[in-house]
Amino acid sequence: MNDSVLKNIPMFADLRDEILDKIFSLMQKRLYKRNNMILMEEDVGDTLFILNQGSVKITRLSDDGREVILSILGDGDFFGEMSIFDGESRSANVIALEDSEVFVLKRGDFLDLLEKHPKIAIALLQELAIRLRRSDQQIEGLSLSDAESRIAMSIIRLAEDLGVIKLGQVIIDNLPFQQDVANMAGTSRETVSRMLKLLERKGWIQRRGRQLIITNYDEFVKEFG
Ligand code: CMP
Known about the structure:
Layout: H1 17-26, E1 28-32, E2 37-39, E3 47-53, E4 56-61, E5 67-73, E6 78-79, H2 81-86, E7 93-96, E8 100-106, H3 107-116, H4 118-144, H5 147-162, E9 164-166, E10 169-172, H6 178-185, H7 189-201, E11 205-208, E12 211-214, H8 217-224
The structure holds adenosine-3',5'-cyclic-monophosphate.
């Protein structure tokens, strides 16, 4: 492996090759199997994780013990930065949704990089602004709408986070399990199953195994976004 791996990580995309080499030498590679716990809420943490390949869910447990999914992250995303910046324990659980390869960077090395290369800091802040906007949307969506709309909005989030757009269609290759979609939308697995069938019957989506295709993404967002 070499620095070219890092070119696909948005936070590092603008850096020169020799800097990428240096960053690469500071990182340690780790592999996680599907369902492995990568970070646990309340643990002390001083490492940053960069997801080179795979997907993870960010979760917390509600008071009555249900899993609530705050976000799903995919290739090139980072996590674990919050404990690095505020010195508190991990704010959420991070669990692999599929076999995943991550790079781990120590707190001190990461903070050094941010000081030396403001481009990394700017890219990081951009991503944090995007995450805050999404969380705002999620709060609005969870408090205002019925279960069906919340499921449709969760599908839009998954399309944004994991989907690939092609000729107006969005293809999500590894759709999380129906229980995960339910935990994103704050509803039951049965309601998700019913809603997916309804959307399929009406031609909004197609499903093949764990692949989900939104047939006309712009129209879908207009209707449900
Ligand atoms: P940290 O608190 O160190 O460990 C858990 C990580 O989950 C956290 O850093 C963030 O990287 C990530 N995380 C927590 N909340 C959210 C959220 N709402 N959206 C995306 N990522 C999050």
